[in-house]
């Protein structure tokens, strides 16, 4: 497999966690979202992903984009360890939390949107993340065990950790979100989350390396 990734992309990080958890080795091709006006806009990369976004994964003779679609494929083809619970209610809760982050928070504070916000970039990101986290904290108070849904790592957790990383980058006060903070801390102790961390990627700038 070949993963096209950017070290700080939260969508790429979700996929890196899934690959690490499932023990799938891969080659990483860095796509720098800032360099050369954004390498994702090159004709070469557009041929790989017409949406001009990371991640993209070449695997089993196909090329997949969109992090959740990639993770679902990995779940279907490498079912252990499981990232979706067998219980239908818990499975729905996992998808709900994942969608809350991947549809409701991350897209409205991603690079392409922030670039259009000019000087209000930080303020906008904080507003988007704060309103999303207020809802997410309430949801997790009902669904969480050790992790987002119960005591098993799920697709929801793969979405949570990169989003908290974004929140910290944009200096969001995490005080009002004790459940999110607790789960994030527990997840960052797991090896798959450590090896996939933005501070430990081949394309991580020297000053940001762990």
UniProtKB/TrEMBL annotation:
GO biological process, one term: L-phenylalanine catabolic process
Pathway where it operates: Amino-acid degradation; L-phenylalanine degradation; acetoacetate and fumarate from L-phenylalanine: step 5/6
UniProt-recorded name of the protein: Maleylacetoacetate isomerase
Pfam families registered for this protein in UniProt: GST_C_3, GST_N_2
Location of the protein in the cell: Cytoplasm
Domain GST N-terminal: 1-82
GO MF annotation list: glutathione transferase activity; maleylacetoacetate isomerase activity
UniProt-listed Gene3D superfamilies: 1.20.1050.10, Glutaredoxin (3.40.30.10)
Cofactor(s) listed: glutathione
GO CC terms in record: mitochondrion
CDD domains from the UniProt entry: GST_C_Zeta (cd03191), GST_N_Zeta (cd03042)
InterPro entries: Glutathione-S-Trfase_C-like (IPR010987), Glutathione-S-Trfase_C_sf (IPR036282), Glutathione_S-Trfase (IPR040079), Glutathione_S-Trfase_N (IPR004045), GST_C (IPR004046), GST_Zeta (IPR005955), GST_Zeta_C (IPR034330), GST_Zeta_N (IPR034333)
Protein's organism: Psilopogon haemacephalus
PROSITE patterns: GST_CTER, GST_NTER
The entry's keywords: Cytoplasm, Isomerase, Phenylalanine catabolism, Transferase, Tyrosine catabolism
Known catalytic reactions: RX + glutathione = an S-substituted glutathione + a halide anion + H(+); 4-maleylacetoacetate = 4-fumarylacetoacetate
The gene coding this protein: Gstz1
EC number, as in UniProt: 2.5.1.18, 5.2.1.2
Family under the similarity heading: Belongs to the GST superfamily. Zeta family.
């Amino acid at each position: 497999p070949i993963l096209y990734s950017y070290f700080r992309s939260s969508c790429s990080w979700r996929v890196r966690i899934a690959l690490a958890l499932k023990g799938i080795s891969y080659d990483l091709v860095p796509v720098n979202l800032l360099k050369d006006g954004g390498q994702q806009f090159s004709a070469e990369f557009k041929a790989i992903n017409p949406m001009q976004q990371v991640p993209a994964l070449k695997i089993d003779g196909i090329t997949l984009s969109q992090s959740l679609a990639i993770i679902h494929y990995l779940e279907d083809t490498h079912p252990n360890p499981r990232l979706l619970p067998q219980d239908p209610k818990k499975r729905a809760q996992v998808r709900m939390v994942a969608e809350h982050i991947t549809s409701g928070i991350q897209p409205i504070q991603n690079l392409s949107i922030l670039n259009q916000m000019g000087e209000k970039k930080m303020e906008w990101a904080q507003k988007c993340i704060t309103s999303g986290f207020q809802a997410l904290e309430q949801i997790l108070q009902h669904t969480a065990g050790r992790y987002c849904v119960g005591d098993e790592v799920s697709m929801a957790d793969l979405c949570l950790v990169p989003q908290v990383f974004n929140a910290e980058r944009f200096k969001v006060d995490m005080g009002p979100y004790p459940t999110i903070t607790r789960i994030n801390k527990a997840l960052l102790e797991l090896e798959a989350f450590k090896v996939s961390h933005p501070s430990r990627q081949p394309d991580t700038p020297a000053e940001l390396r762990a």
